[in-house]
Amino acid sequence: xxxxxxxxxxxxxxxxxxxxxxxxIPAAYVVGSIPFGLIVGLAKGIDPRTAGSKNxxxxxxxRLLGARFFLLVFVLDMLKGALPTAAAGAVLHxxxxxxxxxxxxxxxxxAAMLGHMFSLFLKFKGGKGVATAVGVVLxxxxxxxxxxxxxxxxxxIVLGLTRYISVAxxxxxxxxxxxxxxxxxxxxxxxxxxxxxxxxxxxxIPVLIIGRHRGNIARLLAGTENRIGGHANKTL
Length: 236
What we know:
By secondary structure, the chain is an all-alpha fold. The chain has ten helices and no strands. The protein has helices spanning about 1-35, 35-45, 60-65, 65-90, 100-115, 130-140, 145-160, 165-185, 195-210, 215-220.
């Protein structure tokens, strides 16, 4: 009888966690939709939607207002991904027992990214999602965190070598699923079992990021993409 009671209690707790995670999905989308780049730009008298690359992300805001505003918007956009994802992790005590738990955790983070890319407040337009994706990755602790730190270092190195934020972002995004898979295999995580949703999401991240950088890719090929601290490289 006690065994049955324990089982019922576990099932009830699992149901509560599932309901909490489902509630976090739309909340994450709304949080992700907050256009911090636009808010910061307008506060300084500039509408990033009509200036520079006409993007509300940290890169364009930084180009228009300076490096400290790039950092401010980047951190705010990163928190849009990190906070809802970390909240979902807290519901799960940062460990899921099955694929459903990991799937819902990932969907919460994905909703935040979609909010940034297709903002509820901007007629479903938005930024490229790089900073928000970083926040999501860091928020899925500990599974993605180490890989996320590694790709941040790669981003810094590639940016230093090329001075193209777009190139650094795309290279780091491509490296992320590779590093995650390598670390997961080294730690004997169930990468193709319970954690399969994490692997699928890791592969989706570079697809989404590169897809949102189509314009940058075209400018890179044409030699008109702007560098940090300089002008477009006409010889590229």
